[in-house]
């Protein structure tokens, strides 16, 4: 069983996330979308809303599930018996940041990180940009899946 964890805050789920997950499921038998809880972070959407967005977006894909966790991602991977971490890359800055995390995770465990490049038409989308558009009353519908638009 090739099980991957796709960690993030998903505040909110974007079309960029959706792209990585749908392409990732062709590589793995199962993907667990893992919402990390960070007490120091102020979220626009509460945990229940974020879980609902994700569950609705992937309701027709039984090999994709969503769970929340606290602590190190590698510890969550071990708990869920996942041997891979899936991450999306939008730009060179993402690569440098994610590379450091992947090396640290590899030092802490035997878990491999697999990177997928976000599709070119979605590489500009980030949750922080979506939140800013929402806060300022802009049209965010082309940036998120239907489940977030409702």
Q: How would you portray this structure in words?
A:
The model has no long low-confidence stretch (mean pLDDT 95). The radius of gyration is 15 Å and the shape is globular. The termini are far apart. With 150 residues, it is α/β, with parallel strands linked by helices. The chain contains six helices and five strands, in the order E-H-E-H-E-H-E-H-E-H-H.
Number of strands: 5
The total count of helices amounts to: 6
The poorly predicted ranges are none
**What's the architecture, going by CATH?**
3-Layer(aba) Sandwich
User: Overall 3D geometry?
Assistant: globular
Radius of gyration: 15 Å
Helical amount = 25-40%
CATH C-level class? Alpha Beta
Provide the CATH topology: Rossmann fold
What distance separates the N and C termini? 35 Å
Main sheet overview = 5 strands, parallel
Following the backbone from N to C, one meets helices and strands in this order, namely: EHEHEHEHEHH
């Amino acid at each position: 069983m090739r099980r991957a964890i796709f960690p993030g805050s998903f505040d909110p789920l974007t079309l960029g996330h959706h792209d990585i997950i749908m392409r990732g499921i062709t590589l793995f038998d199962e993907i667990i979308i893992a919402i990390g809880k960070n007490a120091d972070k102020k979220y626009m959407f509460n945990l229940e809303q974020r879980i609902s967005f994700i569950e609705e977006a992937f309701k027709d894909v039984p090999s994709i599930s969503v769970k929340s966790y606290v602590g190190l991602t590698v510890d969550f991977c071990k708990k869920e018996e996942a041997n891979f971490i899936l991450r999306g890359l939008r730009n060179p800055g993402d690569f440098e940041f994610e590379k450091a995390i992947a090396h640290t995770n590899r030092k802490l465990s035997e878990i491999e990180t697999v990177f997928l490049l976000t599709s070119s038409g979605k590489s500009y989308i980030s949750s922080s940009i979506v939140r800013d558009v929402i806060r300022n009353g802009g049209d965010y519908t082309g940036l998120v899946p239907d489940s977030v638009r409702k």
